[in-house]
């Protein structure tokens, strides 16, 4: 049983296409049904086979897909002699032809006036099937039983609580309230000779931190130094001229 498409417009007029699987329709060379037309999108539409039924779906094409002159936007079931149109290209849908061998003949049933009596029949199940069912149910029961996790050390301590007086060490002496007695306290380390523990540490002296000079201050100081040098050179030149004129 094969669905067919017969082109009724365009260059493929009269040709038939068998639909034996899901087919992509479009201008792309990867399509199952290639339509070389500028109005056809690269991935225009698709034919879908579902349980011997043929469906068509638009894939967001620019110029649309039509069934019997109605534009569709979702999957649409096709019937025999339906007209599927991609933009301006039309195809006629041909449903599969049922062969005579596939038609099942039903034998006539004789109608009698006698009442029909139905008798209950016992169904004997093989012992192997019963055993298999028991094993399966046992496996399912074992799968549902989860192994118990061992409690952590913190959980064990929380469940056990504080140990009783009898559980404590027999060598430790405790009072009525369970507090330990005669606990030796370690002696402090000896103080080295010459160290006065009562001496007061001197207060730290403040350290003056020089303020960083800014770029403007540095440039001003450089200008002062340059002016001072220039004045010094001028004075020296004047003194030299005066000395030359005096000793001439």
Automatic annotation (TrEMBL):
This is FHA domain-containing protein. Gene3D superfamilies: 2.60.200.20. Residues 130-188 are annotated as: Disordered. The lineage of its organism: Bacteria, Pseudomonadati, Pseudomonadota, Gammaproteobacteria, Moraxellales. Signal peptide: none annotated. It comes from Acinetobacter gerneri DSM 14967 = CIP 107464 = MTCC 9824. Coiled coil: none annotated. The keyword Transmembrane helix applies. SMART domains: FHA (SM00240). It comes from the Bacteria.
């Amino acid at each position: 049983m094969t669905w067919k498409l017969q082109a009724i417009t365009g260059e493929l007029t009269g040709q038939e296409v068998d639909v034996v699987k899901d087919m992509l329709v479009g201008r792309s060379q990867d399509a199952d049904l290639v339509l070389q037309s500028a109005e056809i999108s690269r991935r225009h539409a698709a034919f879908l086979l579902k349980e011997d039924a043929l469906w068509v779906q638009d894939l967001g094409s620019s110029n649309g897909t039509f069934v019997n002159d109605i534009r569709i936007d979702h999957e649409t079931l096709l019937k025999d002699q339906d007209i599927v149109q991609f933009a301006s290209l039309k195809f006629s849908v041909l449903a599969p032809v049922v062969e005579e061998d596939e038609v099942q003949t039903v034998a006539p049933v004789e109608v009698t006036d006698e009442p029909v009596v139905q008798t209950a029949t016992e169904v004997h199940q093989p012992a192997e099937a019963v055993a298999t069912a028991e094993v399966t149910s046992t496996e399912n029961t074992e799968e549902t039983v989860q192994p118990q996790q061992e409690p952590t050390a913190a959980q064990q301590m929380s469940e056990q609580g504080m140990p009783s007086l009898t559980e404590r060490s027999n060598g430790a002496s405790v009072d009525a309230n369970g507090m330990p007695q005669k606990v030796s306290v370690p002696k402090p380390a000896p103080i080295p000779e010459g160290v006065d523990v009562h001496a007061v540490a001197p207060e730290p002296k403040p350290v003056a931190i020089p303020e960083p000079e800014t770029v403007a201050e540095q440039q001003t100081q450089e200008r002062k130094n340059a002016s001072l040098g220039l004045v010094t050179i001028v004075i020296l030149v004047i003194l030299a001229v005066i000395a030359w004129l005096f000793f001439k």
